[in-house]
Structure formats: structure tokens, C-alpha cells
């Protein structure tokens, strides 16, 4: 099971085969026997669609199709494989191999048989894979996570361990009756069961040291989502010089378990603050160019086909994302889902995205209105270089 990367996409595009089968499908994230069985049934039904398509195509040799079927049927019966699924699954199968790709997004069911794989959705999804960090701001145990659309992991970066480390001289027995020596810049500090009191300057200086450690971990500064108590988050914002802190935060989340529990919320926050403004900017630019008669934008299929062949497409916009609670899992709120346009347009759309990628352009997945029918909206629009 592979995750989506530019290198994986490059390897798949280099494969040559007389038949290419593409399958997208949603999967359950709770792998109970009923849920897994439902996923297997859905996959089996999609294989049935593929079989019917191949049977009706005189250009596909039965021997080529049979070699692919054998591999796909082995996948169907692999219980270990179905236990490891989450959100969305893409399968790219030809006479050479079957490649399964874990998608970081929910999706509708889709199956196609063509001369090449239908890569348009995953080409667009590459632009959705935003890398970010989550920083738990705490005097006691600050934590730093690295994340992307697939999840979060605790980093090995050595952050300052405590707001008191290096500032306390513990002398004698640690009992409540023992008073630490007075310092000119601090209140008295008690040791033992009570938590030591440090002044606000020490606290803010400690937060500054966290800020320096995080900034030294890499450049350019990737989006940073703050977690912690509301007071700690506010004080850290007051002293940080980090250039890319998100406006939203995870208040009252102070432990590793608490952060990991909110991994989906973290990813959604990053999409909302990082990806959506960028996509909206492209959509606005498209509308302006289309409206001013410059000829630098179009949704006409013939114009798009010619521009792709000439390498003129700078940005291809595909309406293939929809916010919806209509998934195979009960969702408390709308989530982004990959949707597909009319089947007869998908080969053309795939060809466009492939050409755009080869000529250095960008394919971006844009959103349909929640109530829109993906079969009625214009699937592909584009901004041209010249």
C-alpha cells in the first residue's frame, strides 16, 4: 500500500501496457468484519464493471485482461490488505503490476478501462498534501509534531524541557517548608508538592526559547498550528517571530494523545487556512481572465485540448471536490470528498492533466457547491500562459 507522492506518480506514468485499469473507492476506517465485507463487496462490484467494459471492447485481448484479473482477485481476498485501509483507495492495475494507493481523502466509487491510467484526481491531490506542524505550548512539556494529509507524528526535535530548567537552584530537601533563596527578579519559589512560581518574564523568555528551537528546525517556515491552554497560546503568540502561524488553534490540548486524537481537525484547519485561500485566488483569477476577453482562460473543450497540446496551460482547474456528509461513514460535519464527472469526460480530463503535468503546469482540484451535481458542472477550466 503506497502513499501518494510525485515519485510514485512518475513511476506509474512510465509503465506501458495494452490495458490500464483504474479504480477509486471509499473504504471504512473501522475495520470490523461487516465493514471490511462491505468494502470487499464494493470492490467486487467495481471489478464487475471493469469486466463488462473489457468484454465489450474488441481492442483488448482476453489474455491481457485475464492476467490483470488474477491479480485483482487476489487483492479482493486479501484480508490483511482490507484491514489497513482508510478514507479512500486508488488501484492502478495493468499487465505489469497492481499498485494500490492510500488516498488522504474520501471519494466516490469509480472504475475505468483505458489505454492509460486515469491520473487526473491524484495529480490534483498532490497539491493538497500540505506539510505542517503542531506545537503544544507548555511550560511543563512542550511538544512538536510534523503532519500532512495522512497524519501526525511526534518529532525528535529537542525542545526546552521545562520552564524551570536552568533557572532553579534546588538546595536541601524538597519540602514545602523549605524556601528557595530570594532573587531580585523573581518571587519566592517553593519546592515539594507545590508547583514552583516563576515570574512572567521567565515564562515569556521560555516561550521565546521554544520559538527559536522551532524556527531553527527548518526553513522556510511551514504552517504552524498551536495547541495548549488558551493562556499559553496567547502568550506564545505575543512573543513569537515565527512567520507562518495559523490563526486557528487547538485550545486546551496539552498532551500527545490529545493532539493525535484531533488529527483530522488539524488537517482540516490547515486546508481551510492554507489551501482554500490559494484555490479561491486561482478561481477569482480565472473568472477575471474569462470575463475580460483576454483569451487567457477558457472552459471550451476544443480550446483546452489545443492549449494542452501546445503547452500553454498554466493552471488546470478540475471541479472534483465536494464538501458533504454523504459518505459511507457517519460524519458529524461536512468533509471533503473526491467526486467524478461524467464517465465520457474523464478520459479527456485525464489527458489534459497528463499534458499539463508534462509541460510544467499545475492541476488544482476545486470545490463544487454542496448541492451541485458533479455531472452538470463544467468539469475542466484552465488559465493559459499566453
Task: Name some characteristics of this structure.
single chain, 386 residues, alpha/beta, Translation, Eukaryotic Peptide Chain Release Factor Subunit 1, Chain A, Nucleotidyltransferase, domain 5, 60s Ribosomal Protein L30, Chain: A, six-stranded mixed sheet, five-stranded mixed sheet, 16 strands, globular
Describe the structure.
- The chain is α/β, with parallel strands linked by helices and 386 residues long.
- The protein folds into 3 domains: 1-118, Translation, Eukaryotic Peptide Chain Release Factor Subunit 1, Chain A; 132-268, Nucleotidyltransferase, domain 5 (2-Layer Sandwich), CATH 3.30.420.60; 295-386, 60s Ribosomal Protein L30, Chain: A.
- Helix content is 36%, strand content 23%.
- Strands 5, 12, 13, 14, 15 and 16 form a 6-stranded mixed β-sheet that branches. It has a 5-stranded mixed β-sheet with strand order 1-4-3-2-6, covered by helices on one side. The protein has a 5-stranded mixed β-sheet with strand order 9-8-7-10-11, sandwiched between helices.
- Strand 7 (132-137) and strand 8 form a beta hairpin.
- Helix 2 packs antiparallel against helix 3 and helix 10 packs parallel to helix 11.
Amino acid at each position: 500500500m503506497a502513499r501518494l507522492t510525485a515519485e510514485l506518480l512518475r513511476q506509474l506514468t512510465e509503465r506501458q501496457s495494452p490495458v490500464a485499469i483504474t479504480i477509486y473507492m471509499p473504504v471504512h476506517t473501522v475495520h470490523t468484519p461487516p465493514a471490511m465485507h462491505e468494502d470487499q463487496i464494493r470492490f467486487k462490484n467495481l471489478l464487475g464493471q471493469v469486466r463488462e467494459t473489457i468484454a465489450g471492447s474488441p481492442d483488448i485481448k482476453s489474455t491481457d485482461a485475464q492476467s490483470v484479473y488474477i491479480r485483482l482477485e487476489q487483492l479482493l481476498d486479501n484480508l490483511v490488505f482490507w484491514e489497513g485501509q482508510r478514507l479512500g483507495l486508488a488501484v492502478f492495475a495493468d499487465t505489469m503490476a497492481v499498485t494500490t494507493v492510500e488516498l488522504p481523502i474520501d471519494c466516490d466509487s469509480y472504475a475505468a478501462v483505458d489505454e492509460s491510467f486515469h491520473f487526473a484526481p491524484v495529480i490534483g491531490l498532490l497539491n493538497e498534501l500540505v506539510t505542517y506542524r503542531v506545537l503544544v505550548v507548555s511550560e511543563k512539556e512542550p511538544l512538536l509534531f510534523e503532519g500532512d494529509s495522512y497524519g501526525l507524528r511526534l518529532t525528535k526535535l529537542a525542545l526546552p524541557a521545562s520552564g524551570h530548567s536552568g533557572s532553579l537552584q534546588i538546595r536541601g530537601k524538597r519540602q514545602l517548608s523549605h524556601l528557595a533563596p530570594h532573587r531580585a527578579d523573581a518571587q519566592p519559589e517553593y519546592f515539594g508538592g507545590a508547583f514552583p512560581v516563576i515570574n512572567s518574564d521567565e515564562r515569556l523568555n521560555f516561550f521565546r526559547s521554544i520559538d527559536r528551537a522551532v524556527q531553527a528546525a527548518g526553513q522556510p517556515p511551514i504552517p504552524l498550528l498551536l495547541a495548549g491552554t488558551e493562556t499559553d497560546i496567547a502568550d506564545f503568540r505575543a512573543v513569537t517571530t515565527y512567520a507562518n502561524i495559523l490563526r486557528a488553534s487547538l485550545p486546551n490540548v496539552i498532551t500527545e494523545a490529545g493532539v493525535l486524537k484531533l488529527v483530522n481537525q488539524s488537517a482540516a484547519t490547515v486546508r481551510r487556512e492554507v489551501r482554500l485561500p490559494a484555490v479561491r485566488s486561482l478561481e477569482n483569477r480565472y473568472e477575471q481572465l474569462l470575463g475580460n476577453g483576454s483569451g487567457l482562460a477558457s472552459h471550451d473543450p476544443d480550446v483546452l485540448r489545443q492549449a494542452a497540446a501546445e503547452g500553454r496551460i498554466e493552471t488546470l482547474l478540475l471541479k472534483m471536490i465536494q464538501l458533504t456528509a454523504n459518505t459511507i461513514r457517519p460524519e458529524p460535519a461536512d468533509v471533503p470528498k473526491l467526486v467524478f464527472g461524467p464517465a465520457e469526460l474523464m478520459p479527456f480530463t485525464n489527458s489534459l492533466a497528463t499534458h499539463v503535468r508534462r509541460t510544467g503546469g499545475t492541476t488544482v482540484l476545486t470545490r463544487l457547491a454542496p448541492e451541485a451535481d458533479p455531472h452538470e458542472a463544467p468539469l475542466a477550466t484552465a488559465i493559459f500562459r499566453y
